[in-house]
Amino acid sequence: MSRRPRAAFLLAGLLCAVLVPPPPSPEAAPAPAGRLEVTWVPAQVRQGDVLLLRVLAPAPLASLAARFAGRAVGFWPEMPGNTGDTGAGAAYAGLAGVDVEDPAGPTPAVVEARTATGEVLEAQAVIPVVRAPFPTQRLAVARPFVELDAATLARVQKERQRMEGALGALTLRRLWAGPFRPPLENPPAPAGFGARRIINGEPRAPHSGADYAAAAGTPVLAAQAGGVVLVEEQFFAGRAVVIDHGLGLFTMYFHLQEVRVREGDAVRAGQAIGTVGSSGRATGAHLHWGARLAGARIDPTALLRVSQH
How deeply is 83 buried, as exposed, middle or buried, from its count of CB atoms within 10 A (0-12, 13-18, 19+)? Predict the structure, then answer.
């Protein structure tokens, strides 16, 4: 990974956390005794963005936990030297997300850890979050898709519960490795994430996915390895697939014409999971690609950028 500007803050202190395995080899020179070092990239994030948190510890940790913007962060051990630093006895990394509607401003990240010898440590950092210049979109949609009758409303509520149930499950280990990839081969520029939508003249929730215009039947590819946790045809999303990548990270693929996986399948990065379509509430053939990270509605294309750090 190439290095980018980062910020760091040190503090000793107290703990509570989730068990993590030690890194493969902790022979590097230790960090200052009794301290954690927390770094992050990029140095400044926007609403809907993703940042990579790194924790450098003086010794292998028995447990490690963090919260950013009030949401849990899951970690995995890094090989010594991957951080570009030489002063840590153990190194860990985790992804944290900024929700599309999180407020801009200084946002705390609090890290708590316990060493194998029982020493308790805490580090706190304040990360700048800036406002994103989201566009406003005005759409005209057939009335049955916005003015729902009682039966359709009941269906939508049940589908929302199933979607939230799938996205609320927590896999305590990382299922992916390496960089994330786009969900289409040679994709066009995505559009729409964070757009404040006005549908038939009425304001709606911000658009929480990136839309790719593509011909119907174009293969849709898994952005990374993981497990399929939901395959369903829904009123709004149409034929939908949700993949769990572990540590609270999920990607979603909506409006498919064809689905080529089943719930419970393990998928690899780049595997064809379906084809582009216009099922559900869609004005034409396109792929809606979405992502959630610990519940935060993030721009999925930010996963492509953070992979390059």
Answer: buried
Token pair for residue 282?
């869609």
**Residues in a beta bridge with 90:** 57
Q: 98, 106, 109: which is closest to 128 by C-alpha?
A: 106
Domains of the chain by start residue, with CATH: 7-130 (2.60.40.1930), 136-306 (2.70.70.10)
Q: What does each C-alpha distance from 276 to 50, 267, 286 come to in angstroms?
A: 26, 18, 6
Cα angle 262-263-265, degrees, rounded to a multiple of 5:
70
Average pLDDT value over all residues in the chain? 86
**Closest to 132 (Cα-Cα) out of 43, 210, 47:** 47
C-alpha distance from residue 74 to each of 41, 136, 187, 193 (Å) = 16, 33, 30, 25
Per-residue pLDDT tens digits for 212-223:
999 999 999 999
Question: Do the Cβ atoms of 281 and 209 come closer than 8 Å?
Answer: no
- The phi, psi pair for 154, rounded to 5°, reads -65, -40
Q: In the numeric block, which tokens belong to residue 88?
A: 């840590």
pLDDT digits (tens, 9 = 90+) for 137-162: 787 877 777 788 999 999 999 999 99
pTM over 0.70: yes
